[in-house]
Specification:
InterPro entries: CheY-like_superfamily (IPR011006), LytR-like (IPR046947), LytTR_DNA-bd_dom (IPR007492), Sig_transdc_resp-reg_receiver (IPR001789). The protein is an alpha/beta fold. It has 2 domains: 125 residues, 3-Layer(aba) Sandwich (Rossmann fold), CATH 3.40.50.2300; 99 residues, LytTr DNA-binding domain (OB fold (Dihydrolipoamide Acetyltransferase, E2P)), CATH 2.40.50.1020. 29% of the residues lie in helices and 32% in strands. The chain has 8 helices and 15 strands.
């Protein structure tokens, strides 16, 4: 039997609530049980013992904002933030929200967020033991925490990723991003087959290779990424399939 998640909306703008209510009505895996217009109402709703599987939560609201509501709730449900601003991504990352929808979003984007919620609902134990990852966003993008802010990086721009001590460096043609995470954690978040571990310290984007010489891959800018001997067989096997 298909999984159906109960859900609630908290948003102070009526047009946003109506949009979410319509999207939920189009989604067979969701059942709306409450739609509220401010966070204090939401706080009282949950304090009264009410529970839902998923909460669609606006950030900027009068009296109590959505992020502060999350900090107050002792056991919040799966949360999908809905906001007109990207400025709250760092807080969203720290609060481990499932997805971060920037208004205006369409039904396709909404559906991808729901799919993430379904996956988290069906495997809560597995999700609990995964180290805090960079925040994933749809299509070819990834949010990573760089210093005190979240930065959006397009996968297609990435040449390679290098592990250095307790952080990794994501290298694009224009910039290098230092991200405080482990290579193992980041490797698990890369969704495309053309990202391949070619060395204990390197993950390479196969689509950005210009040449292979002297046991290394050459990427734009003339940079050489070493290919470890123990990784060569798998590397060439994948290279021949792209």
């Amino acid at each position: 039997m298909p999984t159906i998640l109960t859900c609630a909306i908290i948003d102070d703008e009526e047009i946003n609530r109506l949009t979410l209510e319509h999207y939920i009505s189009l989604t067979s895996s969701l059942k709306l049980v409450e739609s509220m217009d401010d966070a204090l109402q939401g706080l009282n709703y949950f304090r009264a013992g009410n529970r839902v599987d998923v909460l669609f939560l606006d950030v900027q609201m009068p009296q109590l904002n959505g992020l502060d509501l999350l900090r107050i709730l002792p056991d919040p449900p799966i949360v999908i933030l809905t906001t007109a601003h990207e400025d709250f991504a760092v807080d969203a990352f720290d609060l481990r929200v499932t997805d971060y929808l920037v208004k205006p979003f369409d039904y396709a984007r909404f559906s991808r967020a729901v799919q993430r919620a379904l996956l988290q609902h069906e495997a809560p134990a597995a999700a609990a033991v995964v180290p805090a990852p960079p925040m994933a966003v749809p299509d070819n993008d990834l949010f990573v925490k760089v210093n005190s802010k979240m930065v959006r990086i397009n996968f297609d721009d990435v040449l390679y990723i290098e592990a250095l001590s307790d952080y990794v460096v994501i290298v694009t043609e224009k910039q290098k991003y230092i991200v405080y995470t482990t290579m193992k954690s980041l490797d698990a978040r890369l969704p495309f087959e053309h990202f391949v571990r070619v060395h204990r310290s390197y993950i390479l984007n196969l689509k950005r290779i210009e040449a292979i010489e002297d046991g290394a891959a050459v990427v734009p800018g003339g940079q050489h990424v070493p290919i470890g001997k123990s990784y060569q067989e798998a590397f060439f096997s994948k290279l021949n399939r792209i």
